[in-house]
Amino acid sequence: MSEQLKFIVEQLNKEPFRKNFNLITFDSLEPMQLLQILNDVLAEIDPKQSIDIREEMPEQTVKRMSSLLGMLKYKPPGTLSDV
């Protein structure tokens, strides 16, 4: 897991994200902050995703992100009922 975390932090510190995280700061982020980072990454793929998630209903965030991830052929672990 730590290798995956290290990889994620390294990629977020590069272009186009330039987040300037280290392992400690990234690991200490709150869940909403992590969700916003995911949203920022998705916004690089689809600029329509560029939204402050604090200003959006959680259900709408899930629907919007799931729709884009589905278009990208991402298959989440578990079943649809788990979501």
Automatic annotation (TrEMBL):
| Compartments in which it is found | Cell projection, Cilium
State the superkingdom: Eukaryota
- Keywords, A to Z? Cell projection, Cilium, Cilium biogenesis/degradation, Coiled coil
One Pfam entry name: IFT81_CH
Q: Which InterPro entries match?
A: IFT81 (IPR029600), IFT81_CH (IPR041146), IFT81_N_sf (IPR043016)
Where does the record place the IFT81 calponin homology domain?
3-82
Q: Which family does it belong to?
A: Belongs to the IFT81 family.
Q: What is the protein name for this chain?
A: Intraflagellar transport protein 81
